[in-house]
Amino acid sequence: MTTRWVVLLVRLPAGPSRHRVAVWRELRRIGALSLGQGAWAVPDVPVFADGLARAVELAMRAEGEVVTLDAAGRTETDSRRLEDLFAEARREDWREFLADCGKFEAELAKEIRQAKFTLAELEEEEQSLERLRRWHRDLTARDVFGTPEAVEASRRLGECAAACEDYAERVIAALHGTP
């Protein structure tokens, strides 16, 4: 089956640049694929609808123009290429996520080495874990074609949660004065 796409062609006034940045950020946030200057694409699935609407609204507020097109690759090769480009962008998102999982675990290991077992530190680490969970949820929602890195990311998120739970138990033990 050929994937259907929504293509946005966005033209904005040259200034002020904050409008261009706002539209760009919104499209990047939802995982839109940049096809070139002012041209963006996402698979035509409901998960992208709200973000596309926000990007159009931002462009219109800036007195810009947006043309929205329904599209598909003209040939099977074209269709596959769009899917591959989109999937590669998701793989890059997952690689960044996996790197942050490593940073999270390294931070916990540092706190354990330094015996920094305080409630304030535990709250900070739990907030970091929640950020990872939200990020994982968002990436999962836009990973329409199911990249292999998603499986690894789910496993690593579970490891991060287990490491945080271990740290929490150490903090409670330290606060209670128990080994």
Description of the structure:
This protein starts with a strand and ends with a helix. It has helices spanning 17-30, 49-61, 76-113, 119-142, 149-176, and strands spanning 5-11, 33-36, 39-43, 65-71. It has two domains: 5-72, 2-Layer Sandwich (Alpha-Beta Plaits); 87-176. The protein has 179 residues and is an alpha+beta fold. Strands 2-3-1-4 form a four-stranded antiparallel β-sheet. 65% of the residues lie in helices and 13% in strands. A hairpin with a 2-residue loop joins strand 2 and strand 3.
- Extract low-pLDDT stretches: none
Share in β-strands: 5-15%
CA gyration radius, whole angstroms: 21 Å
Number of domains: 2
Order of helices and strands: EHEEHEHHH
Quick summary of this structure?
With 179 residues, this protein is α+β, with helices and mostly antiparallel strands.
Please give a handful of descriptors for the protein shown.
179 residues, alpha+beta, Alpha-Beta Plaits, 2 domains, four-stranded antiparallel β-sheet, 5 helices, 4 strands, 13% strand, elongated
List the helices and strands and how they pair.
Layout: E1 5-11, H1 17-30, E2 33-36, E3 39-43, H2 49-61, E4 65-71, H3 76-113, H4 119-142, H5 149-176
Antiparallel strand pairs: 1-3, 1-4, 2-3
Helix pairs in contact: 1-2, 3-4, 3-5, 4-5
